[in-house]
Design a protein that fits this description.
It comes from Agrococcus jejuensis. This protein has one domain. Helix content is 4%, strand content 64%. The protein is built from 1 helix and 9 strands. A hairpin with a 2-residue loop joins strand 4 and strand 5. The protein starts with a strand and ends with a strand.
């Protein structure tokens, strides 16, 4: 069983070949692929975390689609002063499918 832990969108995600992950918005290259930086590689019983060994490892994912996250409502309220503020936010996201770990 081969899997890797990659750095994507400010977080670390555990990925295998064929897994689908949702990360912060990433622009794909011309051919629709994205290279992800590995932090850890597990190949059977062998665990690789050395920076020199991980420099040779490539994790490739293909771009599936862009989407937006759920709406988050931010409300601020101060009692007895009449201060109310309401703001909304939706994060821009990208869905990727991992194609190879080499």
């Amino acid at each position: 069983m081969v899997y890797a832990v990659v750095r994507a969108g400010g977080r670390q995600e555990k990925v295998e070949v064929g897994s689908v992950l949702v990360v912060d918005r990433i622009a794909p290259s011309e051919d629709g692929t994205v290279e992800l930086a590995p932090v850890l590689l597990v190949d059977g019983d062998t665990v690789t975390s050395d920076a020199k060994s991980l420099a040779k490892v490539t994790v490739t994912a293909e771009f599936v689609n862009d989407l937006r996250g759920p709406k988050i409502v931010i409300q601020k309220f101060k009692n007895k002063t009449g201060y109310k503020k309401r703001q909304g936010h939706r994060q821009d996201l990208t869905r990727l499918k991992v194609t190879s770990i080499k």
